[in-house]
From TrEMBL:
<keyword id="KW-0812">Transmembrane</keyword>
<feature type="compositionally biased region" description="Basic and acidic residues">
    <location>
        <begin position="10"/>
        <end position="20"/>
    </location>
</feature>
<feature type="transmembrane region" description="Helical">
    <location>
        <begin position="181"/>
        <end position="201"/>
    </location>
</feature>
<feature type="transmembrane region" description="Helical">
    <location>
        <begin position="93"/>
        <end position="125"/>
    </location>
</feature>
<feature type="transmembrane region" description="Helical">
    <location>
        <begin position="208"/>
        <end position="225"/>
    </location>
</feature>
<comment type="similarity">
    <text>Belongs to the Brp/Blh beta-carotene diooxygenase family.</text>
</comment>
<feature type="binding site">
    <location>
        <position position="129"/>
    </location>
    <ligand>
        <name>Fe cation</name>
    </ligand>
</feature>
<feature type="binding site">
    <location>
        <position position="272"/>
    </location>
    <ligand>
        <name>Fe cation</name>
    </ligand>
</feature>
<keyword id="KW-0560">Oxidoreductase</keyword>
<keyword id="KW-1133">Transmembrane helix</keyword>
<feature type="transmembrane region" description="Helical">
    <location>
        <begin position="31"/>
        <end position="52"/>
    </location>
</feature>
<feature type="transmembrane region" description="Helical">
    <location>
        <begin position="245"/>
        <end position="266"/>
    </location>
</feature>
<keyword id="KW-0472">Membrane</keyword>
<dbReference type="InterPro" id="IPR022270">
    <property type="entry name" value="Blh_diox"/>
</dbReference>
<dbReference type="GO" id="GO:0005506">
    <property type="term" value="F:iron ion binding"/>
</dbReference>
<comment type="function">
    <text>Catalyzes the cleavage of beta-carotene at its central double bond (15,15') to yield two molecules of all-trans-retinal.</text>
</comment>
<feature type="binding site">
    <location>
        <position position="72"/>
    </location>
    <ligand>
        <name>Fe cation</name>
    </ligand>
</feature>
């Protein structure tokens, strides 16, 4: 039986409204709510991480990437197949493969040609993508205090800016160190690499980012409260505010590399995995019936080949950079460049999925 036929059969076997609601609720609980509680519980641990060497953060990032971070985008080749009824397996794989090859190659070339600009572009792209992921998770959760596209874009700015912007305010020295490591892969002269990233860490840049984040957060919270006063669910708004508060605390307190490593695996990647479970009828049916391990096993099977491919990309970048890889910081930098190369095409696939599911359509949600 083909995948398309299997999807159609699964839809016939399970009442759509009841099954979808049950699966969405389970995905929200296991892939968003519980991990958010876990991150909040880790705040005391995060608060002491600035006392430890940055290598602790590097190890945490590597572990998180190995366990779930790399896998969360490794099913992109099946997304068009599963999210649309008129796309074959062959076409789904072919189109996504071309997108990854062209855009991923362009990102790597950009780092060779203009490493500082490419680093800034990566930060901006990640800001967009991590906000994009959280907005989709809020839609899955069925919140109704973000009914318009403008309010969801404001939420994107806040949610994506918390991991990308707040560490620039709280721990600029380590943030700068990572920037120097990345640029240093392509600018062999260490002093030149340090000088190249200077404009990114001057007080004016930090003040601008801090002002943007504070203003956007206040506006988003206030706008949501206005919707609650007009009849929107207070519970959904309180959850949104609670998550934003936990993320503000996490990225203010924890050392940046450690904070990003935990967030990437425990927050962003898991939320996206949950979203992909919902577009796979068999996995959605399993999790809707309470079989979380079964849903994860199916996802893991689908993600395994390209997860390995992602680590091969890391290896290829490591072998190609002019400065070579000689220290843990170099390994982190190489991993981030490889992740940047995979992030741009991944964002394109996710944006297509957003459009297909109407994430930015007014009133979209449960």
């Amino acid at each position: 039986m083909t995948e398309t036929a299997t999807r159609s059969a699964a839809r016939r076997e399970t009442p759509a409204a009841e099954g979808d609601d049950r699966a969405r609720s389970a995905v929200d609980r296991w892939f968003a709510l519980y991990p958010a509680i876990a991150l909040a519980a880790l705040l005391p641990v995060g608060a002491v991480t600035p006392l430890f060497p940055v290598e602790l953060g590097v190890a945490t990032f590597a572990l998180g990437t190995l366990v779930v971070g790399m896998a969360h985008g490794a099913v992109d080749h099946l997304v068009p197949l599963r999210a649309a009824t008129d796309v074959s397996l062959r076409r789904s794989i072919a189109v996504v493969s071309v997108v990854y090859a062209l855009l991923g190659g362009a990102v790597v070339a950009a780092f060779f040609l203009a490493p500082v600009a490419a680093f800034v572009g990566f930060i901006a792209l990640t800001w967009l993508h991590w906000g994009q992921g959280d907005v989709a998770a809020l839609v899955v959760a069925g919140v109704d205090h973000l009914p318009t596209a403008a309010e969801r874009w404001l939420s994107l700015v806040v949610r994506g800016g918390l991991p990308m912007g707040v560490p620039l305010l709280s721990h600029p020295a380590e943030y700068r160190l990572v920037a120097e490591w990345i640029v240093g892969l392509f600018v062999v002269d260490g002093a030149a690499a340090a000088a190249a990233v200077d404009p990114l860490f001057v007080p004016e840049t930090r003040a601008a980012v801090g002002g943007l984040m504070l203003a956007a957060t206040a506006l988003a919270v206030g706008s949501g409260y206005r919707r609650v006063r007009a009849g929107a669910s207070r519970r959904g708004w309180l959850r949104d505010v609670g998550e934003v508060g936990a993320l503000w605390a996490w990225f203010l307190l924890a050392a940046p590399v450690f904070a990003i490593g935990v967030y990437f695996a425990l927050w962003h990647a898991l939320r996206h995995v949950g979203r992909l479970v919902l577009v796979d009828d068999r996995a959605a049916s399993a999790i809707g019936d309470g079989d979380v391990p079964g849903a994860l096993a199916r996802f893991g099977r689908d993600a395994a080949p390209l997860t390995l491919g992602g680590f091969l990309v890391v290896g290829a970048v490591g072998l190609s950079v002019p400065a070579g890889v000689a220290a843990p910081g170099d390994l982190l930098a190489v991993s981030l460049v490889a992740i940047a190369a995979m992030t741009l095409p991944h964002v394109v696939v996710v944006a297509w999925l957003d459009r297909r599911q109407g994430v930015w359509r007014p009133g979209a949600g449960r």
